[in-house]
TrEMBL record:
Identification of the protein by name: Aldose 1-epimerase
Record-stated family: Belongs to the aldose epimerase family.
A GO biological process held by the record: galactose catabolic process via UDP-galactose, Leloir pathway
Keywords: Carbohydrate metabolism, Isomerase
Native source organism of the sequence: Halalkalibacter wakoensis JCM 9140
InterPro entries: Ald1_epimerase_CS, Aldose_1-epimerase, Aldose_1/G6P_1-epimerase, Gal_mutarotase_sf_dom, Galactose_mutarotase-like, GH-type_carb-bd
MF terms (GO), sorted A to Z: aldose 1-epimerase activity; carbohydrate binding
Listed GO CC annotations: cytoplasm
Main EC class the enzyme belongs to: isomerase
Transmembrane intervals: none
The protein's annotated pathway: Carbohydrate metabolism; hexose metabolism
Entry's EC annotation: 5.1.3.3
Annotated PROSITE patterns: ALDOSE_1_EPIMERASE (PS00545)
Binding site for beta-D-galactose: 179-181, 252
Length: 348
């Protein structure tokens, strides 16, 4: 196992650090302390060729000016909050609106824009980076001083784990996820439409025209949202279902998981033979197929475009604060927020 720390760039006069984790099989993961952002994941295809399978940049300037949340941790609350406002114990909190009238992924100064503290740990069978940050009371309109730690761990089984922990001194909201865009073809040789996804989910959350959950659970039966026996992502692009059309042709939907820690999410690229299995303790995964990706920048020499990556954002339901029937994202001062997701890479 190897781990190294280097300077990646500079933000506001402070060094941005890049951490590179490598296991005995040759799998390599790089991340920076700006937004806890995963910049590269190198894994082999069925012929043993190691290539990068996530979208990212080689400079901090590109992340600042072009990144649509590539590889970062988003928070305090992932997803949209309706009308950039919520109420806790009779107090109304106003948040900055950064997507129309709504608040998205913690706002323009969310966790993805923070320079986190990073500490490395090396063991015999695993290496890890522990990122920490204290979000002060009132940041982006949220109450409470919140102390957050995010741990990235790589082991010798080609498993990468993200564990999240947070505490607060005042009741607040917390719902974190990692926003990596995967493309198992390697080095963005192809788009992700022929990737096959198998997902243990019987229902998805219906979205409004503002892409907010309406609160309605929709059965996946006889729709392009039924991944229980596996289907290609292109099915969502070609679907005439109003929900697929609403998000620009494809997916940008929370799918409610019917199992946890049971190989519940599996993504395969048949041509390269790469397979990604995701296990989590979260109730939902937001599936996003880059339908809104702009084409005004490049990703390591490859023009950005729709459907070039797929996000599998494990989290609680979006906008849960406005839906009492959803699992709660309220964190009280006597509670701890803990969740984790594991990504396992293999070949077919």
């Amino acid at each position: 196992m190897e781990i190294r720390e280097e300077v990646f760039g500079e933000v506001n006069g402070q060094d941005v650090k890049i951490f590179t984790l490598k296991n005995s099989s040759g799998m390599e993961l790089s991340c920076i302390n700006y937004g806890c952002t995963i910049t590269k994941v190198l894994v082999p295809d069925q012929a043993g060729n190691f290539e990068n399978v996530v979208l990212g940049f080689d400079s901090i300037e590109e992340y600042i000016h072009h990144s649509p949340f590539f590889g970062c941790v988003v928070g305090r609350v992932a997803g949209r909050i309706a009308n950039s406002q919520f109420e806790l114990d009779g107090i109304t909190y106003d948040l900055p609106n950064n997507e129309g009238v709504n608040h998205l992924h913690g706002g323009d100064h969310g966790f993805d824009k923070v320079l986190w503290d990073g500490k490395i740990e090396k063991g015999t069978d695993e290496v890890k980076v522990i990122f920490t940050h204290k979000s002060t009371d009132g940041t982006a309109g949220y109450p409470g001083n919140v102390t957050v730690s995010i741990t990235y761990t790589l082991n010798n089984d080609n498993e990468f784990n993200i564990s999240y922990h947070a505490t607060t001194d005042k009741k607040t909201l917390i719902n974190l996820t990692n926003h990596s865009y995967f493309n198992l073809s390697g080095e963005l040789k192809r788009d992700i439409l022929d990737h096959e996804l198998t997902l243990k989910s019987d229902h998805f959350l219906k979205l409004s025209d503002s892409l907010l959950p309406t609160g309605e659970l929709v059965a996946v039966d006889q729709t392009a949202f039924d991944f229980r026996k596996g289907r290609k992502l292109i099915d969502g692009v070609q679907s005439d279902h109003q929900q697929n059309q609403l998000v620009g042709g494809g997916y940008d939907h929370p799918l409610v998981l019917s199992a946890n820690r049971e190989d519940e999410i599996c993504l395969v690229d048949q041509q390269s033979g790469r397979k990604l299995t995701v296990e989590t303790d979260e109730p939902t995964v937001v599936l996003y197929t880059s339908n809104m990706m702009g084409n005004d920048f490049e990703i390591r020499g490859v023009p950005a475009r729709k459907h070039i990556g797929v996000c599998l954002e494990t989290q609680h339901h979006p906008d849960a604060i406005h839906h009492p029937s959803f699992p709660s994202i309220v964190l009280d001062e006597n509670e701890e927020y803990r969740t984790s997701t594991t990504y396992r890479f293999s070949v077919m």
